[in-house]
Write a structure and sequence with these properties.
By secondary structure, this protein is of the alpha/beta class. It has 13 helices and twelve strands. Helix 1 packs across helix 2, helix 6 (77-92) runs parallel beside helix 13 (297-312) and helix 9 runs parallel beside helix 10 (194-209).
C-alpha cells in the first residue's frame, strides 16, 4: 500500500508539498499540483484519516451520533431507516459515516466519544432526549452538526424533523370521526423531549376540537418497544374504563398492543381500533395491516446530511429548521366502534 513518501518520490516533491495538495492549500503551482495528483492516482494512494486530521484537511468522514445503546438502535426499524437516509447521501458524496452510540444509561457518551476521535468533518445527531446534548458538546468543539429532532437553539436553527403535531392531530381526528370518544394513548418515555410534546399537543387539540376532554385514566406510557406496548395495552384493557380505540406513539408499541388485544380475545378493528406512528416496514405486514402516521424517516436522514454537507462546504452557516410532512396512512386496524360500545 502506497504512502505519502512514495507519492513524494514519484512526483519529485517534498512530503510537505503532498500534504499541501491534499489540504488544497492555494500556495502550490498548478504544474506541481498536477504532478502530485497524477502520482496519487497512479499509486492509488489514499491518505489515512489520522494523517488528514493532522494536516487540517478534510477527512471525508461525518459522525452519526445515536444517543441509544446498540441493542436499542438495531431493534428499532425507524432509526435504521433514518440511518439509511444518512448513508445514502454520504455515499453519493464520497463520505464515510462513523456511528457513535451511547453506553447504557449515558446518552452523553455518544457525543464525547465522537469528539475524542478528532477526525470528523461534521455530525448528524439524533437529538431526542431532554437537554440537547449535542449543542453542549459539539458546539464547544466547533464541530458543525445538524439535529434530526428538535433543536433548542434560538429560532430552532439547524434541525430536521417531521410534523409530529400534525400527524397526531390527524390520527386522533380520524378515530373521532369513526365514532370513538374513549381513546387510549400509549405515550413514550417521559424523559423524551419535543417530539412527544408535539404529539401530545396534537392529541389535545384534536380532542378539544371535538369537545372531548383527555381522560388521564386512558393515558399510559411505554418505552417504544413491543413489550412496553403490550404492558401498556394490558393496563388500558384491564381497567373499567376500557377504550374503544388506542393510539400508540410508535408502531412497535401498537404491535405490542395488538398482541395483547388478541389475548383478550378482541377482534381488531371490530372490538378495538389501533393506530400507530412511524409507518415502519412491518406495519403493512401485520394482520390486520396497521393504520399509522408515516414519518419520512429516510428523507429526514437524507435532508439532514445534505444540509450538513452544505455547512461543511461553507455554503451555509445555519438554516431555519426544516419540518417535513407526516401523513396518516389508513389501512385496516381502525374502524367504527362496534354498535353500542362507543358511548356505553
Amino acid at each position: 500500500m502506497a504512502n505519502i513518501y512514495d507519492v513524494a518520490r514519484l512526483a519529485k516533491v517534498s512530503t510537505a508539498t503532498v500534504s499541501k495538495v491534499l489540504s488544497n492549500t492555494p500556495y502550490v503551482s498548478q504544474h506541481t499540483k498536477k504532478r502530485v495528483l497524477e502520482a496519487i492516482e497512479k499509486l492509488h494512494y489514499s491518505p489515512s484519516l489520522a494523517a488528514r486530521g493532522l494536516t487540517g484537511s478534510r477527512t471525508y468522514v461525518i459522525g452519526l451520533v445515536v444517543p441509544y445503546d446498540p441493542d436499542y438502535l438495531f431493534s428499532d426499524p425507524f432509526l435504521l431507516e433514518v440511518i439509511r437516509g444518512v448513508e445514502s447521501v454520504a455515499n453519493d458524496n464520497d463520505y464515510n459515516v462513523l456511528i457513535s452510540m451511547a453506553k447504557s444509561a449515558d446518552q452523553r457518551s455518544a457525543y464525547t466519544k465522537l469528539v475524542r476521535t478528532g477526525y470528523v468533518d461534521g455530525a448528524v445527531t439524533l437529538e431526542t432526549f431532554e437537554g440537547n446534548i449535542a449543542s453542549k458538546v459539539l458546539e464547544e468543539q466547533g464541530i458543525p452538526f445538524v439535529s434530526i429532532g428538535y433543536s433548542d437553539a434560538p429560532n430552532r436553527h439547524n434541525s430536521v424533523s417531521a410534523s409530529d403535531y400534525t400527524g397526531a392531530y390527524e390520527a386522533i381526528s380520524y378515530l373521532i370521526k369513526l365514532g370513538h370518544s374513549r381513546i387510549g394513548i400509549i405515550c413514550g418515555p417521559s424523559h423524551f423531549m419535543s417530539a412527544l410534546e408535539e404529539r401530545m399537543r396534537g392529541i389535545n387539540d384534536a380532542l378539544q376540537a371535538h369537545a372531548i376532554e383527555l381522560d388521564s385514566s386512558l393515558l399510559t406510557y411505554g418505552d417504544f418497544t413491543l413489550d412496553s406496548g403490550y404492558k401498556a395495552c394490558n393496563e388500558l384493557l384491564s381497567s373499567e374504563n376500557r377504550p374503544t380505540a388506542i393510539f400508540a406513539m410508535n408502531d412497535r408499541m401498537a404491535m405490542g398492543a395488538m398482541r395483547c388485544a388478541r389475548e383478550y380475545e378482541l377482534h381488531i378493528p371490530h372490538d378495538l381500533s389501533l393506530v400507530g406512528f412511524d409507518d415502519i416496514p412491518m406495519a403493512v405486514l401485520v394482520e390486520p395491516p396497521l393504520t399509522t402516521v408515516r414519518q419520512p424517516a429516510v428523507e429526514m436522514g437524507r435532508c439532514a446530511t445534505q444540509k450538513l454537507l452544505e455547512m461543511i462546504n461553507a455554503d451555509v452557516r445555519e438554516f431555519e429548521s426544516i419540518v417535513l410532512p407526516a401523513e396518516l396512512i389508513i389501512r385496516s386496524s381502525a374502524a367504527a366502534p362496534h354498535w353500542g360500545r362507543a358511548n356505553s
